């Protein structure tokens, strides 16, 4: 990556363990596509209750934004069901798995376009 990985926590305390997991997942994305120039990850918890005592059970909203030459790929996990993605590790895995699929599709399309241009 040309620009260092950006990780932001909103409505949730920073966690070194979660940050390390995100770094591992981002490194795996770079193995799929070495043309990534930027990766931003936002982890949010939207509290319906204003009391900080009622945080348990709130779903995690994960956004993974990857910039590649010629475009940007975005995965946004924004569950409506309050019981979805209660485990932050599951939410991260789902978001990064989805981004990995998008990157694989991008790489495959790029190869087809390159072969088509070469054949002309």
Point out poorly predicted stretches: 50-55
For the record, give the distance between the C-alpha atoms at the N and C termini, rounded to a whole number.
Answer: 32 Å
Radius of gyration: 17 Å
Q: What is the level-2 CATH architecture name?
A: 2-Layer Sandwich
Number of strands: 4
Mean pLDDT across residues: 85
Q: What class do helices, strands and sheet pairing give?
A: alpha+beta
β-strand amount: 15-25%
CATH topology: Double Stranded RNA Binding Domain
Q: How would you name the CATH homologous superfamily?
A: Ribosome hibernation promotion factor-like
Based on CA inertia axes, which overall geometry fits? elongated
- What is the count of distinct domains? 1
Major sheet: order of its strands? Answer: 1-2-3-4
How does this structure look, described?
- The chain has one domain: Double Stranded RNA Binding Domain (2-Layer Sandwich), CATH 3.30.160.
- It is elongated.
- The chain has two helices and four strands; from the N terminus they run E-H-E-E-E-H.
- It has helices at residues 16-32, 88-119; strands at residues 6-10, 38-45, 60-68, 71-77.
- Strands 1-2-3-4 form a four-stranded mixed beta sheet, with helices on one face.
- It is of the alpha+beta class and 120 residues long.
- Strand 1 (6-10), helix 1 and strand 2 (38-45) form a beta-alpha-beta unit.
- Mean pLDDT is 85; it is low at 50-55.
- The longest helix has 32 residues, at 88-119.
- InterPro entries: RHF-like, RHF/RaiA.
- It holds the Pfam family Ribosomal_S30AE.
- This is Ribose ABC transporter permease.
């Amino acid at each position: 990556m040309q620009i260092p990985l950006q990780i932001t926590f909103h409505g949730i305390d920073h966690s070194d363990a979660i940050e390390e997991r995100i770094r591992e997942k981002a490194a795996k994305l770079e193995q799929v596509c070495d043309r990534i120039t930027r990766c931003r990850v936002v982890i949010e918890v939207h509290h319906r209750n204003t009391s900080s005592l009622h945080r348990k059970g709130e779903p995690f909203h994960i956004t993974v934004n990857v910039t590649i030459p010629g475009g940007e790929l975005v995965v946004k996990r924004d569950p409506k069901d309050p019981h979805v993605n209660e485990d932050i590790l599951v939410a991260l895995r789902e978001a990064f798995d989805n981004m990995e699929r998008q990157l694989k599709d991008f790489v495959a399309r790029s190869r087809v376009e390159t072969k088509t241009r070469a054949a002309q």
